[in-house]
Amino acid sequence: MKLSLDYCFPRNIRVGRISYMNVAPVYYGLNNGHKPRWMDMICAPPAVLNTMLAAGQLDISPVSSAAYARNRKDWLLLPDLSISCFGKVMSVLLVSRFPFAELDGKSLVLTRDSAAAAALTRYLFASKKICPQFETGKVLCPDNLPQNAGAALVIGDAALKEDWSAHFDHVWDLGQVWMERTRLPFVFALWAVRRQFAEENPESVSAVIAEFRRSKYMGEENINRIVPLASEKLGISMDTCAQYYQQLHYDLSSLQIRGLERFFDGLYKERIIPEPVHLSFFHEEQAFSRVHAA
């Protein structure tokens, strides 16, 4: 369905944006003169956006897949939007001074900035009955890892900027590890809307979905413009940036949904989350029906 772009909403819609370069293609149009007046954009790290959506400070936002598992009763998923990989992802690394199996009982530093990457790390160890001592911290460069720690989860721009293999004997790309174990893609982030907001304002949600579709299409058409910007911001080569964007997928196909369901089933089986997770999507037909009934 298509809603008028000059539709008068009761108030501006508060939309989150991850403060990493990985979402640049999705937000390309919105960041380049096509953000409507009725949309307020709030930029923050993934964990902050998770908290803001849960607290009602945002209406729609990208959220980690692990955060969706915790808030599934209060959030609905937007269709055809995710941050996924079909193997290597490059920006989610486990760096270690020891082989994987030898991390049992050793300190492993997890970041607060990505709930999905942290949950994936916990699952990969739990499913092999390996029990590191998980701690929370932030490792942005090799020198940040304490001498008494065995390994660390490194995500986002920091994972891309450093040559971690020059400093650690073992570096695992967790997207690749997941693919090798399951033969399925991994979904790190989804776009969600607060259920109450969607029920009260379905036409607003449909308008945001339409804007995201247009913005993402523009990003895909202008990836050659995004790559130099990312290269300059991150201080890494254009070849590395181009390779990075080739690894990322922003749709949400049936195969990606299968990978997401497999992840949630694994988290529940290993008691990382307390309840099974069933996916609930926003259906645009609800907005269509409401508009035509008015």
List strands and helices in order, with pairings.
Blueprint: E1 13-18, H1 28-34, E2 39-44, H2 46-54, E3 60-64, H3 65-71, E4 75-85, E5 92-96, E6 107-110, H4 115-126, E7 133-136, E8 149-155, H5 156-161, E9 170-173, H6 174-182, E10 186-194, H7 195-200, H8 202-221, H9 223-234, H10 238-247, E11 248-249, H11 254-269, H12 284-293
Parallel strand pairs: 1-2, 6-7, 6-8
Antiparallel strand pairs: 3-10, 4-10, 4-11, 5-8, 5-9
Helix pairs in contact: 1-8, 8-12, 9-10
Walkthrough of the structure:
42% of the residues lie in helices and 21% in strands. The two termini are 16 Å apart. Helix 8 crosses helix 12. The longest helix has 20 residues, at 202-221. Strand 1, helix 1 (28-34) and strand 2 form a beta-alpha-beta unit. The strands form three sheets. A five-stranded mixed beta sheet has the order 7-6-8-5-9. It is an alpha/beta fold.
Q: How would you concisely characterize the structure shown here?
A:
This protein has 294 residues and is of the alpha/beta class. The protein is built from 12 helices and 11 strands. The strands form 3 sheets. It has a 5-stranded mixed sheet with strand order 7-6-8-5-9.
